[in-house]
Write a structure and sequence with these properties.
The chain has 7 helices and 8 strands. It has 250 residues and is of the alpha+beta class. Helix 5 runs antiparallel to helix 6. This is DAGKc domain-containing protein.
Amino acid sequence: VLNGLLIGEDWENAIKIPLGVVPAGTGNGMVKSLLDSCGEPCAASNATMSIIRGINYNHTHKSCPGTFLLLFQGLQRIFGLRKYNGSIIFVPASGFESYGEPIDVEKEDYGYQGPKVDIKSLNWHKINGPFVSIWLHNVPWGGEDTMAAPDARFSDGCLDLIMIKDCPKLSLLMLMNGLNDGSHVKSPHVSYLKVKAFILQPGPRVDDQAKSEEKTLMSYDKPLIKVDQGLATLFASSLDLADLIPIPRD
């Protein structure tokens, strides 16, 4: 939706349209985070009343199977554990400059007409794989029962990067238990840092047999994500949040 609003020449007017989110997807992480910040349960009725004030909304929200689906996929990935090569390039937030090695970036492409930024002037760092998992968030909840980024704040101007480079299968199972309350980030196998921008340089699976099979699959361009703080407005129950929304530029 945001990319659609930002893709035209009139993006400065289009992005002023307030956005409302109703939980009807698989994870519902964004709306869960919005309602949770106001102390309200993640339900369609609560979300709708945040958008349309004073209307009696008598819809009974039934829980979708999204949480079970995410759990099943997580277990499936643990037992069939994969590691991927490649690297991540990022601009660390203040206090996280010790992560990675400083590098220069020459990228100037943009995927929408929004605010421009001098990519080359930013303080880029790089971490090489292989990786078990990379998760990038700007809200605390990744799903209704998954607090993926417990330190994420709507208005801090940062993305929260949760990274696992190596971890035994048993430890990964224990990490899944910690997703309910965010305690998984305390594991020595998890690196948790805040960044201002992020580039993924994808690579093939570590498994030699899979390299040739995934060469074409993993040869897509490097996605760039940059925080544009205060760019869009979201409806919330008792707040009108003009906060950060990370958007892939290309």
